[in-house]
Each structure stands twice: as structure tokens, then as C-alpha cells.
Design brief:
mainly alpha, two-stranded antiparallel ribbon, 44% helix, 4% strand, rod-shaped
């Protein structure tokens, strides 16, 4: 069964959401309703929002790559400590400690030369 646009009379083809002639949005029928996101929710999978972005997740545990970076470049470790102190306290503490250790070892290394 062919349905026409209510505004301009352009024939609506299956799967069209907007009229290509005038831009009027077609009402969704049961056939056009997406079934996949509901299935993803039931399976515990995350779905994308309207902008195609995944919802942000809270990072659990220490991210060791940042700790190593904080050790190798001590100022980065201290900056990460102050930036992530509230959001990621475990990673912030580890980065801060690594930054301080990096500074102490760097200072000792320079003094021994």
C-alpha cells in the first residue's frame, strides 16, 4: 500500500522517514520501529544515543598507563593527580605518587652526576 506525503502528495516509499520533496517527517509505522536497541537492552548491551555516541562509563580501578606516564614525566603525574582527584581517586593517587617518585629519583640522579 502506497502512502503519500500529507503536505505535498509525494509518494512515500518503504523506509523513508522524511519527504524528499518538502522535508515533512513521516509518522513511524510498526514496521519502521527499530527492534535491535530493545534487544540490546535486554541482553545488557549499551546502545548509542541520538548523536551516535556511547554513554560514558565510570572507569574502575587504576589505569597503569597514566601511572607510568606520571613516573616518566613527573609534572604530568602531579597534574593528573590534581585533575582527577575527585573523578578517579585511585588513578589520581597512583599518578601523584608516581610523579613524586619520578621527581625524587630524577633529583637523586642529577645530584650523583
Amino acid at each position: 500500500m502506497q502512502v503519500n506525503c500529507q503536505s505535498c502528495g509525494y509518494p512515500q516509499q518503504q523506509g523513508m522517514m522524511n519527504c524528499p520533496q518538502c522535508g515533512t517527517q513521516f509518522p513511524m509505522t510498526n514496521q519502521q520501529m527499530p527492534q535491535q536497541p530493545m534487544m540490546n537492552q535486554q541482553m545488557g548491551m549499551q546502545q548509542q544515543n541520538a548523536f551516535g555516541q556511547m554513554p560514558q562509563q565510570q572507569v574502575q580501578g587504576v589505569q597503569w598507563g597514566f601511572v607510568v606516564l606520571g613516573f616518566l614525566i613527573p609534572i604530568v603525574g602531579v597534574i593528573l593527580y590534581f585533575v582527577w582527584n575527585k573523578e578517579r581517586p585511585e588513578t589520581a593517587k597512583a599518578c601523584g605518587i608516581a610523579g613524586l617518585i619520578g621527581w625524587v629519583l630524577g633529583f637523586l640522579f642529577i645530584m650523583n652526576m
